[in-house]
């Protein structure tokens, strides 16, 4: 099929490359001219496993442009993958999405063949209906229909999640479901040759194709993220309790996670969730509930627990050092999780700010995001790509992102480098055998080890 993807961010580029991989001819559009120029030159705007090689492999079926008219002329399906960032009050900012839709509809005016306008961005319930009203207002309803196709990929595994999904959710009318079924058929049937660096995960269940209304698809996406966020906040509250009663949250997660009604995923205690989705989407769902006269109490608690959880690292540090003034603290990892260079809503930045506010000398390291981070970090922060330099003479190391490079750190070497080998593990991720020689503190792992 001829497909156009509007927006070439994490979702749009992953979608475009994956659709080209399963045989479609894909045109990607962005308003960011530099991004398009870079993509034309083969320069990736994001860090994602397997992206560059798959991009190269499908290059003949991938087109890039800043021109909507050129992009939608032959498109049977136009997919919107535009950012919907949170406003101050938590409501999602839909202005970029509406701007893009206006551009698309303006360019569709003279087109005689049918077009399915598919929204992949995470949006409040009713947005699809607003888009259909826009289509109608331009007299395009006979040829343009609207569908919702929420995205569930995880950054860091974006391509694998897209090629091997658990479910594909489509909202709208049966004609739209049919077109999207055809679009995704190779993924639904898993009929394609696996890319060598993106192997099929083991034990994959058949892909579920879930057809619902526009409104259920839109709300379902928020429900999925809010539920996962709830699991994280729940286990973090258990961790905080564990620290007070001398139990180990890893044992607790094992006990509850083996119950198939609960499931073991998302029960890793730590400093909470970050990134471009969970914080924004939980706040957006809360806003949607509020705007519809519903007090979503559980969600308020999930959000509040996560807001404060990152500072448990600082609390633990304070109980060891008492006073941070003039003391060097190494912060390991800046991105909100490993495998991505995304710094949106990462807990590392508030942690760095809190350390600086208490007079600490802060040194940071990250294997991929240092350059991106420089403009976000206060000038006094020592940012180095040399891990040993970051740890040299530090009185504590705070593990914020569980990048493999940190999990391979040798306790013996840390003892030599650091003034005090105090290692506070915000992700409970350092393997037990690497904790020897360190003053190791986890989150909810009971009494000091
Ligand atoms: P992003 O910020 O990485 O990318 C958005 C892209 O849209 C940018 O390249 C931007 O330049 C472009 N853009 C903005 N206005 C435009 C316009 N008028 N015309 C053309 N391009 C325009 O965002 P993202 O992370 O890919 O997220 C996109 C949507 O998908 C959001 O609603 C997000 O909540 C949702 N989502 C994201 C993820 C994720 O992991 N990132 C997962 C699931 C869902």
Automatic annotation (TrEMBL):
Gene3D superfamilies: Cytochrome c1, transmembrane anchor, C-terminal, NAD(P)-binding Rossmann-like Domain. Substrate binds at residues 221, 266-270, 274, 337. Residues 330-432 form the UDP-glucose/GDP-mannose dehydrogenase C-terminal domain. Keywords: NAD, Oxidoreductase. This is UDP-glucose 6-dehydrogenase. One of its GO terms (biological process) is polysaccharide biosynthetic process. Pathway: Nucleotide-sugar biosynthesis; UDP-alpha-D-glucuronate biosynthesis; UDP-alpha-D-glucuronate from UDP-alpha-D-glucose: step 1/1.
């Amino acid at each position: 099929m001829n497909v156009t993807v509007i927006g070439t961010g994490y979702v749009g580029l992953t979608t475009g490359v994956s659709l080209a991989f399963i045989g479609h001819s894909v045109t990607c559009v962005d308003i960011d001219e530099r991004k398009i120029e870079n993509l034309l030159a083969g320069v990736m705007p994001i860090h994602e496993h397997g992206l560059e090689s798959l991009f190269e492999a499908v290059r003949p079926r991938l087109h890039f442009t800043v021109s909507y008219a050129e992009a939608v002329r032959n498109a049977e399906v136009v997919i919107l993958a535009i950012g919907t960032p949170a406003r101050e009050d938590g409501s999602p900012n839909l202005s970029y999405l509406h701007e893009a839709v206006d551009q698309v509809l303006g360019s569709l005016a003279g087109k005689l063949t049918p077009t399915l306008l598919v929204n992949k961005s995470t949006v409040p319930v009713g947005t699809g209906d607003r888009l259909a009203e826009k289509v109608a207002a331009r007299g395009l309803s006979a040829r343009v229909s609207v569908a919702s196709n929420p995205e569930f990929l995880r950054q860091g595994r974006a391509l694998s999640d897209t090629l091997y999904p658990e479910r594909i959710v489509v909202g709208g009318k049966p004609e739209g479901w049919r077109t999207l079924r055809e679009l995704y058929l190779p993924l639904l049937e898993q009929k394609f040759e696996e890319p060598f660096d993106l192997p099929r995960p083991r034990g994959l269940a058949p892909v579920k194709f879930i057809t619902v209304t526009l409104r259920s698809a839109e709300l379902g996406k928020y429900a999925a993220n809010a539920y996962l966020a709830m699991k994280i906040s729940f286990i973090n509250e258990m961790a905080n309790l564990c620290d007070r009663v001398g139990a180990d949250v890893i044992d607790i997660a094992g006990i509850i996670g083996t119950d198939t009604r609960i499931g073991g995923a998302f029960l890793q205690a730590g400093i909470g969730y970050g990134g471009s989705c969970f914080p924004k989407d939980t706040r957006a769902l809360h806003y949607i509930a509020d705007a519809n006269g519903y007090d979503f109490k559980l969600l308020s608690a999930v959000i509040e627990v996560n807001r404060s959880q990152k500072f448990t690292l600082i609390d633990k540090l304070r109980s060891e050092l008492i006073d941070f003034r003039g003391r060097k603290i190494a912060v390991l990892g800046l991105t909100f999780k490993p495998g991505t260079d995304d710094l949106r809503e990462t807990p590392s930045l508030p942690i760095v700010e809190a350390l600086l506010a208490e007079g600490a000398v802060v040194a940071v390291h990250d294997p991929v995001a240092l350059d991106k981070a420089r403009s976000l970090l206060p000038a006094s922060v020592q940012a180095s790509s040399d891990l040993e330099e970051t740890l040299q003479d530090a009185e504590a190391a705070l593990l914020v992102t569980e990048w493999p490079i940190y999990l391979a750190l040798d306790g013996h070497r840390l003892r030599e480098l650091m003034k005090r080998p105090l290692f506070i593990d915000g992700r409970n991720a350092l393997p037990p055998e690497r904790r020897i020689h360190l003053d190791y503190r986890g989150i909810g792992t009971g009494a000091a080890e």
